[in-house]
C-alpha cells in the first residue's frame, strides 16, 4: 500500500513538472454533512490535494485531486425502531452505532474564471467525483436482529464550487472556497451530500520570476 | 448525453441538499405522557401528547407499561392510530391491584423513537360506586327462577388444567367461575366459550350465563371478590351475585 502511494505521488510530481502552467494545491475545509449523512455525522475537517493546469489569466483551468474526511457520529448510538406486522403488530426498539466512517474521492474539475479585479479572481466550477464511502455499523433490535456490518461502497456525483483567489506572487495564490457535493452510492440509496467551506493555496511550480 | 448528465446532476443536487438539524434530537419525535387515570371499572386510561413529529415521517405512537420503571416500547405495548388535537389514548385492563405499574408514551418516526416520562400507578382498584348493583356478600339472587338469598361457601381458587377456577356452594346451589388465567382487578365480559386469550365462564347450577359483566376485585394475592349484576341466563332469567373466595 505504501509503495503504491509512493508511485502515485511520483507520477503526480512528474505530471506537475511537465507543464509550465502546472500548479499544485491543497485545501483544508469544514465538512458539513447534509442529506443522509446529516442526521448521523458531525462536522469534520476535510483535506484536499490537487493538481491544476491553467494560468490565472486563462478563462478555464482544470483540476484533478483527492478529498478525504473522517467525520465522527453525532451520538454514540442512535435510537431506531422496527415494525413487525401481522396479528400481533409491534414496534421494537433498537439502536445503531457507527464507527470508522471515511469518505475519500477523486475528482476532475473545470473552473471558469468569472471575474478578475487586480489580483483577485473569482472562479466557479464543477467537478465529476468518484470515490469510496466506508463505515462500520452495529445494529440491534432486542431479540430480533443483531447485525455487524463493514460497508465499503462506491460513491459518485458532482461537486459545485465557487472560490475567490488572491495571487500573492507568480508562484502562490491563496483562496477561500465554498463547495457543494452531491454524491450518491452505487445503489442510489444513500445521498452522501455535504458542503464545505475552506481555505487553500495554489502553488505554481514553474512560474517565471517576477 | 448532456441532458442525461444534467438530469443526474439535478437529481443529486435535489437529494443531497437537505440541511442537517442543529440539534440531533430534532430528528426524533417528541412525546409527553400526560396522565394515567384509573377508571371506575379498574382499567387505566393513559393519555399522551405528540409534541412534534420530528424531522421525518411519523410511523407510530402508543404506550408501554411494566412493573419496573422505564418500560421499553414493546412491553405491554399499545399502538394508537388516532390523534385528537395531538393527544392519543389507550386503555389497560386486567391490572393487578397489588402491583405498581409504570406507564409511558412513545413515538416512532423514520429516524428513530423517543419516550415520554413514566407515570407510576399503584393500588389500582374498582370504584365500588361504579358497580351497578348492591348485594350482600356471599349471596346470589336469581330473578324469576330461584328468588332467594343464600349463604355460600367458596372453594378455591384452583388451577385446573389451563383454567383458573373458583367454586362456591350453598345448600342448594353451586356457582363456578372459570377464567383462562388468574384474574386481576377489573371488569370482564362473560363469555360462553373459549376466545383468543380470553375466557370467562360462569355456571350457576350447571347453567351457563350467556352474557353480562363480572367485576373482579383482587383483595390480596390469594383472595378475589366477584360481583355480577343482572347477567342473563338462558330463558331470560337474571343473576345478581357477590362472592368472595376464599372466605
Features:
heterodimer, A: 210 residues, mainly beta, eight-stranded antiparallel beta barrel, 1 helix, 9 strands, 8% helix, elongated, B: 247 residues, five-stranded antiparallel beta sheet, 45% strand
Compact overview of the structure:
Chain A has 1 helix and 9 strands; from the N terminus they run H-E-E-E-E-E-E-E-E-E.
Q: How much is the radius of gyration of chain B in Å? A: 26 Å
What is the count of DSSP helices of chain A, taking H or I runs of 4+ residues?
1
Kindly name the structural category of chain A.
mainly beta
**What oligomeric state do the depicted chains represent?**
heterodimer
Low-confidence regions of chain B: none
Structure description:
The complex is a heterodimer of chains A (210) and B (247). The two termini of chain A are 41 Å apart. Chain A has an 8-stranded antiparallel barrel with strand order 1-2-3-5-6-7-8-9. By secondary structure, chain A is mainly beta. In chain A, 8% of the residues lie in helices and 65% in strands. With 247 residues, chain B is mostly beta strands. In chain B, 6% of the residues lie in helices and 45% in strands. Chain B has 1 helix and 18 strands. Chain B has one helix spanning 2-16, and strands at 30-38, 44-52, 58-66, 78-80, 87-92, 101-109, 113-115, 119-121, 139-143, 153-160, 163-169, 174-179, 186-189, 200-204, 207-208, 213-218, 224-232, 238-245. In chain B, strands 3, 4, 6, 7 and 8 form a 5-stranded antiparallel β-sheet that branches. In chain B, strands 9-18-17-16-13 form a 5-stranded antiparallel β-sheet, with no helix packed on it. In chain B, a hairpin with a 3-residue loop joins strand 6 (101-109) and strand 7. Chain B is elongated. The relative contact order of chain B is 0.14. The mean pLDDT of chain B is 82. Chain A binds chain B through residues 32-35, 37-39, 74-75, 78-81, 83, 89-93, 142, 157-158, 160, 180-184, 191-194, and chain B through 9, 12-13, 15-21, 24, 27-28, 55, 59-60, 62, 72-74, 77, 79, 106, 108, 111-114.
Amino acid at each position: 500500500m505504501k509503495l503504491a502511494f509512493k508511485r502515485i505521488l511520483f507520477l503526480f510530481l512528474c505530471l506537475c513538472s511537465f507543464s509550465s502552467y502546472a500548479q499544485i494545491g491543497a485545501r483544508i475545509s469544514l465538512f458539513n454533512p447534509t442529506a443522509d449523512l446529516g442526521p448521523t455525522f458531525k462536522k469534520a475537517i476535510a483535506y484536499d490535494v490537487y493538481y491544476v493546469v491553467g494560468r490565472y489569466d486563462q478563462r478555464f483551468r482544470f483540476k484533478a485531486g483527492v478529498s478525504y474526511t473522517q467525520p465522527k457520529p453525532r451520538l454514540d448510538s442512535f435510537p431506531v425502531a422496527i415494525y413487525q406486522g401481522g396479528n400481533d403488530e409491534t414496534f421494537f426498539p433498537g439502536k445503531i452505532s457507527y464507527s470508522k466512517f471515511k469518505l475519500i474521492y477523486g475528482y476532475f474539475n473545470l473552473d471558469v474564471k468569472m471575474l478578475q479585479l487586480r489580483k483577485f479572481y473569482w472562479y466557479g466550477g464543477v467537478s465529476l467525483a468518484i470515490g469510496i464511502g466506508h463505515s462500520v455499523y452495529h445494529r440491534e433490535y432486542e431479540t430480533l436482529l443483531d447485525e455487524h456490518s463493514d460497508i465499503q461502497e462506491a460513491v459518485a456525483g458532482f461537486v459545485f464550487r465557487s472560490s475567490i483567489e488572491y495571487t500573492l506572487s507568480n508562484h502562490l495564490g491563496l483562496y477561500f472556497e465554498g463547495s457543494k457535493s452531491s454524491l450518491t452510492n452505487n445503489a442510489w440509496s444513500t445521498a452522501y451530500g455535504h458542503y464545505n467551506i475552506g481555505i487553500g493555496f495554489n502553488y505554481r511550480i514553474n512560474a517565471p520570476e517576477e | 448525453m448532456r441532458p442525461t448528465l444534467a438530469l443526474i446532476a439535478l437529481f443529486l443536487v435535489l437529494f443531497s441538499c437537505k440541511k442537517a438539524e442543529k440539534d440531533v434530537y430534532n430528528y426524533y419525535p417528541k412525546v409527553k405522557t400526560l396522565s394515567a387515570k384509573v377508571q371506575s371499572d379498574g382499567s387505566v386510561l393513559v393519555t399522551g401528547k405528540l409534541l412534534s413529529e420530528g424531522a421525518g415521517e411519523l410511523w407510530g405512537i402508543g404506550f408501554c407499561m411494566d412493573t419496573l420503571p422505564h418500560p421499553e416500547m414493546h412491553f405491554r405495548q399499545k399502538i394508537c392510530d388516532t390523534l385528537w388535537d395531538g393527544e392519543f389514548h389507550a386503555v389497560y385492563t386486567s391490572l393487578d391491584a397489588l402491583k405498581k405499574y409504570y406507564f409511558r408514551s412513545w413515538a416512532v418516526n423514520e429516524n428513530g423513537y423517543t419516550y415520554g416520562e413514566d407515570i407510576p400507578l399503584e393500588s389500582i382498584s374498582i370504584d365500588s360506586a361504579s358497580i351497578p348493583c348492591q348485594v350482600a356478600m356471599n349471596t346470589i339472587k336469581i330473578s324469576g327462577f330461584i328468588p332467594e338469598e343464600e349463604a355460600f361457601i367458596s372453594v378455591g381458587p384452583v388451577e385446573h388444567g389451563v383454567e383458573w377456577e373458583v367454586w362456591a356452594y350453598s345448600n342448594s346451589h353451586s356457582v363456578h367461575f372459570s377464567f383462562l388465567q388468574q384474574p386481576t382487578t377489573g371488569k370482564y365480559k362473560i363469555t360462553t366459550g373459549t376466545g383468543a386469550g380470553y375466557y370467562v365462564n360462569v355456571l350457576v347450577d350447571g347453567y351457563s350465563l350467556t352474557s353480562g359483566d363480572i367485576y373482579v376485585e383482587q383483595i390480596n394475592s390469594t383472595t378475589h371478590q366477584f360481583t355480577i349484576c343482572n347477567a342473563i341466563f338462558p330463558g331470560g332469567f337474571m343473576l345478581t351475585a357477590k362472592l368472595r373466595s376464599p372466605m
